[in-house]
Specification:
The chain contains 4 helices and 4 strands; from the N terminus they run βαβαββαα. By secondary structure, the chain is of the alpha+beta class. It has a single domain, classed as 3-Layer(aba) Sandwich (Glutaredoxin), CATH 3.40.30.
């Protein structure tokens, strides 16, 4: 299985939806809470080029945010990235 990382905050509704989608697919992921670890925000911004959460990575591939992940899913691209296809 690929390594999945989700940079997120506790109360962000898009973060909650992103994690829920991964949970429904049975995918294990590392949750990086930048509200608890603000020192990791610069890392997230450097890796993604974005300042908003969630930011989702599958191995070294930057999926983007929740909407980007849903687009990947609807296009049939997410499951292969997650090793589910």
């Amino acid at each position: 299985m690929p390594q999945v990382k989700v940079y997120c905050t506790l109360t962000c509704p898009y973060c909650i939806r992103a994690k829920s989608l991964l949970d429904r697919k049975g995918v294990r992921y590392e949750e990086i809470r930048i509200d608890e670890r603000p020192d990791l925000r610069p890392e997230m911004e450097r890796l993604s080029g974005r300042t908003s959460v969630p930011q989702i990575f599958i191995d070294d591939y930057h999926v983007g945010g929740y909407d980007d992940m849903v687009d990947h899913d609807m296009d049939g691209k997410l499951d292969p990235l997650l090793g589910l296809a």
